[in-house]
Amino acid sequence: MSALESVLIQCPYCWETLDVSVDPSVQEQEYVEDCQVCCRPIVIHVTFDDDLTPHVDARAENE
């Protein structure tokens, strides 16, 4: 079982840097998480390459 990996993203609303956890055992995932600062919904899309390096896209829910 893989441990969760910590990744930094930027909120598309308030521009704060946030620390989110992603699961490297799932190669591609998309979910909504509320900003820890402004509480607005952020759509987080994560993919992992062959070296299990996460690539994260964080966007506003209405984009």
Q: Could you name the key traits of this structure?
A:
single chain; 63 residues; 0% helix
The backbone outline, from C-alpha atoms, is elongated
Number of helices: 0
Q: How confident is the prediction overall: mean pLDDT?
A: 94
Class derived from helix and strand content = mainly beta
Low-confidence stretches: none
Fraction of residues in helices? under 10%
User: What is the N-to-C succession of helices and strands?
Assistant: EEEEE
Compute the separation of the termini in Å: 34 Å
User: How are the strands of the largest sheet arranged?
Assistant: 3-4-5
Report the strand count: 5
Rg for CA atoms? 12 Å
Beta-strand residue percentage? over 45%
Largest sheet: 3 strands, antiparallel
Protein described:
0% of the residues lie in helices and 54% in strands. It is mainly beta. The protein has a three-stranded antiparallel beta sheet with strand order 3-4-5, with no helix packed on it. Strands 1-2 form a two-stranded antiparallel sheet. It is elongated and about 35 Å long. The mean pLDDT is 94.
Write the layout of secondary structure elements.
Layout: E1 5-10, E2 17-22, E3 28-34, E4 41-48, E5 54-60
Antiparallel strand pairs: 1-2, 3-4, 4-5
Brief characterization of the structure:
The mean pLDDT is 94.
